[in-house]
Write a structure and sequence with these properties.
The protein has helices at about 5-40, 50-85, 90-95, 100-140, 265-270, 280-310, 315-345, 350-375, 380-410, and strands at about 155, 160-165, 170-180, 185-200, 205-220, 235-245. With about 400 residues, the chain is an alpha+beta fold. The protein folds into three domains: about 5-140 and about 255-380, no CATH class; about 155-245, SH3 type barrels (Roll); about 380-410. The chain has a six-stranded antiparallel sheet with strand order 1-2-3-4-5-6, with no helix packed on it. β1 (about 155) and β2 form a beta hairpin. The longest helix is centred in the first third of the chain and has 43 residues, at about 100-140. It is elongated, with a radius of gyration of 31 Å. The chain starts with 5 loop residues before the first helix and ends with a helix.
Length: about 400
């Protein structure tokens, strides 16, 4: 890595190891949570496994925008904590290398992640979000017989059917009974000796082909409580009958951009004061400012994480980590909630989104300056001690409770 000293490379390696682990675990957890819902939609459909992986691929940029800041924060916390715990920071300080100089490579690394986040939030997420929704729409609306089971009544839209023999590899079946209820328009009952499904190139709906069958068609649905005559009907035999399976609306999905989250940064800027017909000015403003705030937050994370990672009391490290994570989670939750309020037009984006970022940046900068350029006690030491004392007291109380319970059970 040209331009980096040995110490810079060592600090980066120390930070990148926990960062990579946290990023991988975070993406796996987030994708696993969505995988259950995806399987519920796609399982049993044709090429279901390829559809599942395609949908998960579309979700990666969305969850990457969530996992990347958290992974960077954890990587900085664990990396510099490791340097502090091993007294490597003390050795570097003794050799004349300041803490600010040690942090310089990770600050530049956060700048690179910020540029990457501009692309993720600005362009990659909008396109993949739309692609994910379009594919879900197609899979959900194309009513196919791929979920059918032999000898079991199944529902596909207005059609109820049962198959006798089914070959999933070839999409062929034998002896089908199909009832199509059309409401006041009547109904149609079909029995056929065999049939199969044919995929169509320009239509996501498969073509249902039936051979050697009989058809009974009611022109209208009978009204049993009235004196009206029975509806007329027709019957007939056929050698071959074809019908697309699914809704016609599934052939075309709405254009991208009707949801402001599907718009790129350039589209949001162009439509800042002239939004599209399905979006309001407040929604466009909130979405644009939320993305910019999310990107700029990454620049603040090194200055926020470093003071919490380095401490004078090694026994309180766990509590420093806990306080830091609470601050970060509360900040992102606040941004999400205030963005929703701003989209409704109930608060200004400058007050709702930029004020939390400004306060976080001031807090992180002040803490970083005190840690790197001054000598003194950490103002949070009292909080760490309080948390440690209460944790020990709670742990002792739980132990006593179990001991009393065990003593009573032994006496009985």
């Amino acid at each position: 890595m040209p331009g980096l000293t040995i110490i810079d490379r060592y600090v980066l390696r120390t930070v990148l190891k926990p960062l990579s682990v946290a990023l991988g675990i975070g993406l796996m957890v987030l994708l696993s949570e969505r995988l259950v819902r995806i399987l519920d939609i796609t399982l049993g459909k044709k090429n279901s496994f390829s559809v599942v992986f395609e949908l998960l691929g579309y979700l990666v940029p969305h969850y990457l925008g969530i996992a990347l800041p958290a992974a960077l924060f954890l990587g900085l916390m664990f990396g510099f904590n490791q340097l502090s715990k091993n007294a490597e920071i003390d050795a570097l300080l003794a050799s004349g290398i300041s803490l600010h100089r040690m942090a310089r490579p990770v600050i530049w690394f956060s700048v690179l992640l910020t540029l990457l986040s501009v692309y993720i939030f600005g362009w990659l997420q909008p396109y993949t979000r739309y692609a994910y929704r379009a594919l879900i729409y197609t899979v959900s609306n194309v009513e196919v017989f791929y979920l059918a089971e032999e000898g079991v009544f199944m529902q596909a839209g207005t059609r109820t059917f049962i198959l006798d023999k089914l070959e999933r590899k070839t999409n062929r079946f034998q002896r089908i009974f199909l009832f199509d209820y059309r409401g006041k328009g009547g109904a149609q009952t079909i029995t056929a000796e065999r049939g199969y499904l044919v995929p169509q190139k320009n239509d996501p709906r498969p073509l249902l082909v039936l051979e050697n069958g009989q058809r009974l068609t009611l022109k209208s649905w009978p009204e049993f409580d009235s004196d009206k005559p029975a509806p007329s009907f027709t019957t007939g035999f056929f050698k071959r009958a074809e019908s697309p399976i699914g809704k016609e609306s599934a052939t075309v999905f709405r254009p991208r951009g009707e949801d402001e989250r599907e718009m790129t940064l350039t589209e949001l800027i162009r439509g800042y004061d002239t939004p599209r017909r399905n979006a309001t000015v407040a929604e466009i403003h909130a979405e644009l400012h939320k993305r910019v705030v999310s990107v700029l937050t990454i620049l603040v994370l090194p200055f926020l994480a470093l003071p919490f990672a380095i401490g004078h009391r090694r026994q309180q490290r766990a509590y420093r980590f806990a306080v830091a994570m609470v601050i970060l989670i509360a900040y992102y939750e606040l941004i999400q909630q205030l963005a929703a309020v701003a989209k409704a037009g109930d608060i200004s984006v400058w007050l709702g989104l930029w004020t939390p970022l400004g306060l976080l940046a001031l807090f992180a900068g002040w803490r970083y300056w005190r840690t790197c350029f001054t000598i003194g006690q950490d103002m949070f030491d009292a909080l760490y001690d309080w948390l440690a004392q209460n944790a020990r007291a709670a742990r002792a109380a739980i132990v006593r409770l179990f001991e009393r319970r065990a003593g009573r059970e032994g006496a009985q």
